[in-house]
Design goal:
314 residues; elongated
Length: 314
């Protein structure tokens, strides 16, 4: 409703609803119009709600009752990215607005830190991944707030990276739940011996989450840090705070990845379900393995990503 109200107010103020026409009409004078500022605030409210930004993030972890393939598709790769996509579409219109950078930077990077911290406090595999997704969505939204200074680059790289490893991890959580009949981190362990292929896929995807070299996650984090450092050198307001937040979140992600892998796949089984877990069938294990392969292939061959980035560049 906030999004609808913002779009209606923007169209009434600018005299058109077409993005191609709005680009030419929203100059500095138009952006200073209180009605346009209010429209932007309402539209961002809609984007924050859709992409689970603070303080609206609670719906995403609560949606984890869905089967894990649904979670992988809707809650990691597609549906929750629509708020991020809206920020991308609006960038050319509103990046010069006074509200744009402060709103996206503060809400996005606060959500990133909060999601990373809450992910470490969870014991349910899907809840852990859900809060980790909240964290990454916060980073993606906050990233567009930096664009007013550095220009938006590598956003497709960050989105692709998150889609590959998080989609696979959600499906791996489903495989673990199917094999061990539970998702509680405290009741698992020792599953690598029973499902080594799934363990390898999980290790690759968690390495990408942690930013280990050789994965798309390393390339994504390297590009993000480079852009943040450029913003710091350009004396962009909030860039130092954003850089500090990203460093803290990166450390928390390493701890998260290590905790996930060691508690699920290493050590001794801590329950009968984990002790008697069975290897998944080939069709069940194939999808996350393919996504993990994408993480490695693109991570080890950055020129392939250069072609994709050039094709998608706007």
């Amino acid at each position: 409703l906030a999004l609808l109200a913002g779009i209606l107010l923007l169209g009434a103020s600018a005299g058109t609803y077409r993005i191609s026409e709005l680009t030419g009409r929203l100059d500095a004078a138009a952006l200073a119009d209180p009605r346009v500022a209010l429209a932007l605030g309402l539209i961002l409210l809609g984007a924050f709600g859709k992409s689970a930004q603070f303080p609206f993030f609670f719906w995403l972890p609560n949606a984890m009752a869905a089967p894990t393939p649904v979670s992988a598709y809707l809650h990691s790769a597609t549906m929750v990215k629509l708020g991020v996509f809206l920020c991308a579409r609006l960038f050319s219109l509103f990046s010069g607005a006074e509200l744009w950078a402060p709103a996206l930077l503060s809400v996005g990077f606060l959500t990133m830190l909060l999601g990373s911290a809450l992910a470490l406090l969870q014991t349910d595999l899907k809840a852990m991944l859900a809060f980790s997704t909240v964290s990454q969505l916060g980073f993606l939204c906050g990233y567009y707030g930096l664009g007013a200074v550095t220009g938006v680059r590598f956003d497709f790289l960050h989105i692709l990276n998150h889609t590959l490893y998080k989609g696979a991890l959600f499906m791996i959580a489903g495989i673990v739940a199917h094999a061990a009949h539970q998702r509680d981190l405290r009741q698992l362990g020792g599953l690598f011996a029973r499902m080594p292929a799934v363990g390898v896929a999980a290790a690759v995807c968690l390495a990408s989450l942690a930013g280990v070299p050789g994965t798309t996650g390393f390339l994504s984090k390297e590009a993000a840090l480079a852009d943040l450092l450029a913003a710091v050198h350009a004396a962009s307001p909030g860039a130092v705070v954003a850089l500090g937040a990203l460093v803290v979140a990166a450390v928390l992600n390493v701890i998260f990845a290590a905790r996930f892998f060691t508690r699920v796949f290493l050590g001794a089984p801590r329950s009968d379900g984990a002790a008697h877990a069975h290897a998944p069938s080939f069709p069940l294990a194939l999808p996350p393995f393919l996504l993990a392969g994408g993480v490695l292939v693109l991570g080890l061959a950055p020129p392939l990503l250069n072609r994709l980035m050039a094709h998608w560049a706007v």
